[in-house]
Each structure stands twice: as C-alpha cells, then as structure tokens.
Design brief:
2 copies of one chain form a homodimer. Chain A contains 3 helices and 4 strands. The first copy, chain A, is α+β, with helices and mostly antiparallel strands and 107 residues long.
Chain lengths: 107, 107
C-alpha cells in the first residue's frame, strides 16, 4: 500500500472462552464487507494469530483484519452507512469484541 | 504478501506519558532491522496510529511495525541472533514496551 493511505485494522483480542471462526471470516465476512464498500477498498488482508513474543505464549489477537482506503473521508463515507450491517455479522463468527485501530501508512 | 507467510507485528500501545518518535522509527530503526535480517525479510510496513473506532478517541497503538517472513523457521533463525541488538535500539525512539504478535497470512 502507498504512503499516506488509511489502514483500518480490526483486531480480535484472544482470551479463554473466546472463539473465532477464521474460515467464515475469510470466506464470508471479508467478501461481504468488500461487496458493501466496493471501490473504496484499496486492499484487504487477514491474519490468523499464532503466538506472542514469548515461546509458547498465546497470540494477543486471535485474528486481525485490515482494510486500506485512499483517505479518511473515503473510509468514513463508505464504512459509515454500512457499519450496522457489518457489525451485525460478527456473532456469526466470533464472541470477541474487536478493537478498531485507524492508522496512516508510513512505510 | 502470500498466503501462508509469517507476519510478525510489533505493536506499541499508546497511553498518557508515552512517546514514540515515528521519524526515527521509519528512517533509522526499520533500516537497521532490515540490514540485520537481510533476505529473510520479504516485506516490511509501518503505520502511525491516528485514532480508534469511536470518533475523537486515541489510537490503541501509537505505531505498528510489521515484518513478513517465508516461514516461522526463517523468522526465528534471522531474528533470534539479532533480537538483543534490535531491542537495544528501542529507547532511542520510544518508552513503550511493545506487544509482539506472530500471525499467519490468510488473505
């Protein structure tokens, strides 16, 4: 992605009793979001947590999803009107409340 | 990045009294790490935190750095011998203790 783009990360903190269906997320949720937001999305990535810094430790995040936009306006204008529908899909793949991080791409 | 690659994320949690020199990080630290790990690194990205999900909220992470490797072995064999030198550079740009997340690239 290009410097200056907006990266929106959706991070799913791991904990005992939490679950996350990575197959549903990759195959259903991501394509639903892509369909709703359309051309505003300039890139999307998904990662599955494997572990933390200490050997054998649990990953801080069960999964991370990242969307890239040209600008903050583009993110807000495309995501805002679809936020409710997107959030309503979460119980279909997880009982985790995600952390949202909005960042600027530097490198 | 390709499915199956290993993504190592270094996340710097934001809080009052914490500081992070994004210029030093982008211009000095990243190139130092790249020089030490060499060809093992298949990609590197840096993002600066702008905000959280709620309007006007502080970003959970002041910054995020991500390195991509072909495999867990490649990460461990290249990072392990250089970990001490890399960690010793942290006080030059931040007083934050980072969170390390090791992930598998899915999408």
């Amino acid at each position: 992605m290009k410097k200056g783009m907006i990266k929106v990360s959706v991070l799913y903190p791991n904990a005992k009793g939490k679950n996350f269906d990575i197959d549903y997320y990759c195959n259903q949720h991501v394509s639903m979001v892509a369909g709703l937001l359309g051309d505003a999305i300039k890139g999307a990535t998904v990662e599955k947590g494997l572990g933390g810094g200490a050997p054998g430790s649990m990953a801080t995040f069960a999964a991370m999803g990242n969307l890239y936009f040209e600008s903050m306006d583009s993110f807000q204008n495309s995501f805002g009107p679809n936020a409710e529908q997107i959030m309503a899909d979460l119980p279909n793949f997880t009982n985790i409340e995600p952390v949202i991080q909005i960042s600027e791409v530097m490198v």
